[in-house]
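Note to self: keep these together.
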Amino acid sequence: MKKNLIIFVLFLIAGIYSCKKDVVEYPITYSSYSISDPTIKIYTRNGEVTSSVLVNNIVNRYQSNLNKLENDKIKEKIVVTYISEDSTELTIDKIKEDKLRSVHEIDGVIYLEKQDTSIFPFGPLFKVQDLNKYYPLYYTETFAPPGSGYSKYSRFKECFFLIKNGGKLKIPMFDFFWIHNTGYLISTPEINNSFKEDGLNNFFVNDTMIIQEYLIEMK
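Structure:
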C-alpha cells in the first residue's frame, strides 16, 4: 500500500512538472537583427526577363535607386512583442502602435491584424497591391461613386506579415520599382509581403519592373 502511494505521488509530481514546462510566460519579444541576401529580378508584362546581360544592364542603370540593405540599420528597427498567445504590440522605428494587434496563423504565415478598418481608393488599372502574395484576412471591395476619379474602394484591416520557418520568425519584404515606358521611375520600397508574379496581368505592356526581394530575420 505504502509503495503504491509513493508511486502515485511520484506520478503526481511528474505531471505537475510537465505542466509547468508547457506554460509560456509573456511578454515575449522578437527584434529584427539581420537581412538575407536580396534576390533581384526584372519583369515585363510577358513575365521574367531571363537574359543575364539585359538584367545586369537594367540593374546597373538603376543601381542608385535600389534600396540599400544594411544589417546595422535593421537592428531593432522592428519589434514584435507578444502580450499573449493571440495579441501583440508592434513597434517600428521606436514608435509603438497605440492599439494591440490580434494574431492569426495560417499555413506558416502569421497575420498581425489591426483592430481598425482602413479604406483605400484605386483606379481600374494596375495597383501595387496586385503584386502581394498575402492579403488581409478582412478585405472587401465596393464600387466608387461616379465622378470620384476612382473605380473602387477597398476596405480592410491592415496586417503585418511574418513567416514561421524552422522555429524562427522572418519578415517577408520586397522593393518595387516601376519603370514607365517614358523612363519615369516610381519606387515603392519596403513592402511587407512576398511578391506574386500573377499580379503582372494588370501591368502595362511597355513598362518594366524591378523586384528586390529579401527576408528580415527576428530573434
